[in-house]
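re: that chain from earlier
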Amino acid sequence: MAARGEAGSAVTIPRGWNAGDMPSLAGQVAVVTGGNAGLGYFTALELAVHGAQVILACRNTGKAAVAAARIGEQAPGAVIRVARCDLASLESVRSFAAGLPAGEPVDLLVNNAGVMAIPRARTEDGLEMQIGTNHFGHFALTALLLPRLLAAPAPRVVTLSSFMHQFGTIDFDDLNRERRYTRWGAYCQAKLANLLFTLELDRRARSAGAPLTSVACHPGYAATGLQTAGARSAPARALVAAANGAFAVTAREGAQPTLCAAAFPRLPGGSYIGPGGPGGYRGSPGYNAPSRKAVNPVVAARLWAVSEQVTGIPFAFPKGPGATGAAAAAGEG
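^ sequence. v structure.
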């Protein structure tokens, strides 16, 4: 499966690609949100196995410390750091970014953490929990880490979306779902927001002449703790568990598209990586097609402006030699 890079050369992901095909990441610093469990854990594990220094950015540092120890057992000599980052708190996101060592570049940011189909809840900042955590928290984190990313030779931002994004709608009149809340409606909106953000970040980076690659991915139907966390009752949890056992891939398998998005060489910005099998539910990683909603630049630009306003954190791309008038506008936010 191939896509076109900016230089016009085909970039092919071989069929059957898996984490064993990853290149050495020695010398790179990778931040993985929610790296203590599920997809994030196996993402962090493989990044560490392949030589990256991994920072587990997690809400629960106790669980993250246990995960770091497990990763260390499987990747002897790996450098694994744990830092608190609660994406449901903009103050926590700011503290995490400010707490990284001064001047340390970040080569890779994996915006992995998220919540799925949970009962109505609010973040510390009063935002609907799913879009507040899945989108606004990661938007803020990426903006705050932008100077560190641009200090790396070939920075990459990977943001997890979902095949469920196609059922989402960005309701600018009710982003917080004050009038009508449904668990899956809010989740699909948040996952669509993730993909809109990824593609808009790619457009703005290219316009600014910045060497940053922004790509998205999704795991297909992977069995993680998210499904059971959203189930309201014991029978519902049992049903989810049965469906996972019958149809879902494991969390390790579900992490393969993330790892491909994070480490495949010369991956074109704006790529959307997911399972290559029918329907995008399972299979080895390949290029997937975003829905028409996700590639709408007008909606993406509006969401970007709203996100800067809501978080109070602007993106500031420096004006490089390749920057144009459009780049300057993108940098000003």
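The CA atoms of residues 168 and 188 lie 4 Å apart.
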